[in-house]
Design brief:
Helix content is about 50%, strand content about 20%. The protein is built from 16 helices and 17 strands. A 5-stranded antiparallel beta sheet has the order 2-1-5-4-3, sandwiched between helices. A 5-stranded antiparallel beta sheet has the order 7-6-10-9-8. A hairpin with a 6-residue loop joins β9 and β10. The radius of gyration is 58 Å and the shape is elongated. It comes from Paenibacillus filicis.
Length: about 550
């Protein structure tokens, strides 16, 4: 694992060196193109070789100034040579090598440049002059052609010195030593640059794994070199095919592994100390408080509501303990509240039991009156007494909020019996109930107060005979109830007050209270599912519409 990480890191360094080498070769290419296209170079090399010595001197001075200005601007450690077909020779070094003065077009860098037809080519010293000591370790050549006519004018050769290359790849290592060596090879495996005493520049690098490096583009491998174990890391420069190879001695890994082992032991010891401290801290701030809180909860389960949690810190545990204390206090208050409600309920039940004597007494009294009315032949009194007894029995039923429509209509019929006997033919009453509405459930005693309101405040105050219509039907899953009279009605001001729930003046308070009571019951029993609407015109009558769910099952509310 460590070896692989080091190898990957070395490969990244080799790639960086390769990028720097690519920048250098691109600079050389741009430099050669600049000289190739320069007007002075084109003009001088196109001249005849038989021109006067004075003109040749002037031309040489111009070319030398051009070459020197190029070297000064680029700051590159190179030597430039121009060899014209007209016999002109120009160079930047101290002397002109014989291989460029008396060059052969079918050999070395000249042959490659001629074959490339104007493109830049690269060559190592072994092709030009296979000797062990060279000043230039890498050569770049290009044919110079006339820009307009296209014929060959001569050759441009740029030789790169050893420092220009070694400075690049030495920045990718920690220095040239036996444990870490970086080499620059050409595509044939010949050494271009590198500190190897046994392999001079320009000769083939003798190494058993060279074939794998030349065949691959980039990678790393374990190998042996000079009877020692190494990791060979390599990458390829795309434009030239040159290979950057870095040999890393494997004994470095043992040193790094020892350092990592020592660091691991130190970090493990620090981790144990930190873990021990955290365990102690957590036991004091989390574990013990939670255990204490759990014990207090067990006491609360047994009914000990006086216990409280004492928090030491204002942290999450402290917040939890505070919530526990609030819960216990609230629990005690709720238990006390429930106890008091039970006491009050028992007292109310006792009072209700005592009050049951009165309804039974009234039933017996009304039955006696009924018997006497029948005995004396007064059927009207008998009918009133029976209706009143049924109304009384219906109204005092306990714990029943919802009744069937048929039951509340029957209660309404008893009430209307009394009113019709009382008023005679002052008003006519019709009650129409759809068959599918009879078994629906509705609030108990809902119809009577609405009909009573219509009679007392609408029909009794009207001169002449009046009319009262009660209609109940089921439409769209809803129970529709309508109560309409043609009594005295009311104006817009009084109607608006009635709709808003304001108590009415002039003896109409009972009207407002009764209607508000109906509206409130509907909102409590059917929140958001009921409707209440009242319309009226002065002198024409009043209409009340109710809409509630057509439930066929009793749903009592608590």
């Amino acid at each position: 694992m460590i070896q692989e990480e080091i190898s990957l890191g070395a490969l990244d360094k080799v790639k960086q060196v390769n990028k720097s080498l690519s920048f250098l070769t691109e600079d050389v290419d741009q430099l050669s193109l600049y000289l190739f296209r320069h007007e002075t170079v084109q003009q001088v090399l196109a001249k005849s070789g038989e021109r006067s010595p004075l003109e040749k001197y002037s031309d040489a001075k111009q070319i030398q100034q051009l070459l020197q200005s190029v070297l000064d601007s680029k700051r590159m450690n190179v030597q430039i040579y121009l060899a014209g077909l007209n016999g002109d020779r120009y160079f930047t070094g101290d002397y002109l090598p014989l291989k460029y003065d008396k060059y052969r077009e079918n050999w070395g860098i000249i042959r490659k440049a001629k074959a490339a037809g104007g493109k830049l080519v690269w060559d190592t010293p072994y092709t030009a002059q296979p000797i062990s000591r060279q000043t230039g370790v890498l050569s770049a050549g290009r044919v110079i052609k006339h820009i307009s006519a296209g014929y060959t004018l001569g050759y441009l050769i740029i030789e790169m010195m050893e420092p220009s290359l070694s400075n690049i790849y030495r920045t990718g290592t920690d220095g040239a030593d036996r444990d870490n060596r970086m080499l620059l090879l050409d595509s044939q495996g010949y050494l271009i640059s590198g500190e190897l005493n046994q392999t001079p520049a320009g000769t083939r690098f003798e190494y058993a794994g060279l074939g794998r490096i030349l065949d691959g583009k980039q990678g790393y491998m374990e190998t042996r070199w000079s009877d020692e174990a190494y990791i060979a890391v390599y990458d390829t420069e795309d434009a030239t095919g040159f290979k950057i190879v870095n040999f890393i001695a494997k004994r470095q890994f043992a040193d790094k592994i020892g350092q990592i082992r020592s660091m691991t032991i130190v970090l493990a010891a620090i981790g144990l100390l930190v873990a021990a401290w955290l365990a102690y801290f957590l036991s004091q701030t989390v574990t013990r408080p939670l255990t204490s809180l759990g014990q207090l909860m067990q006491k609360v389960e047994t009914g000990q509501l006086q216990v409280r949690f004492k928090a030491r810190y204002h942290d999450d545990i402290g917040t939890l303990g505070s919530s526990f204390n609030t819960m216990v206090e609230r629990l005690g208050a709720l238990i006390q509240e429930v106890y008091e409600k039970k006491v009050h309920l028992r007292e109310a039940e006792l009072k209700a039991l005592q009050a049951q004597i009165k309804p039974h007494f009234l039933y017996n009294t009304l039955e006696t009156v009924n018997w006497m009315a029948k005995k004396n032949g007064i059927p009207a009194i008998s009918s009133i007494v029976v209706a009143l007894a049924e109304m009384l029995r219906y109204s005092i039923r306990k714990n029943i909020q919802l009744v069937r429509v048929s039951d509340d209509v029957k209660q309404l019929q008893h009430y209307l019996t009394i009113q019709q006997i009382r008023h005679g033919e002052r008003f006519l009453v019709t009650v129409e109930v759809a068959d599918d509405a009879l078994d629906c459930f509705m609030p108990a005693l809902l119809l009577q107060p609405l009909v009573e309101n219509a009679i007392v405040h609408g029909l009794e105050m009207k001169l002449g005979q009046g009319r009262l219509d009660v209609g109940i039907r089921v439409t769209g899953g809803q129970l529709h109830i309508q109560i309409e009279d043609d009594g005295v009605g009311m104006d817009e001001v009084m109607l608006e007050k009635l709709r808003s729930g304001v108590e009415l003046p002039d003896g109409r308070e009972h009207t407002g209270i009764g209607l508000n009571n109906v509206r409130s019951r509907l909102e409590l029993l059917y929140p958001g599912r009921s409707g209440f609407d009242i319309t009226s015109l002065a002198g024409q009558g009043t209409r009340i519409r109710l809409v509630l769910p057509a439930d066929r099952e009793r749903r009592e509310t608590p």
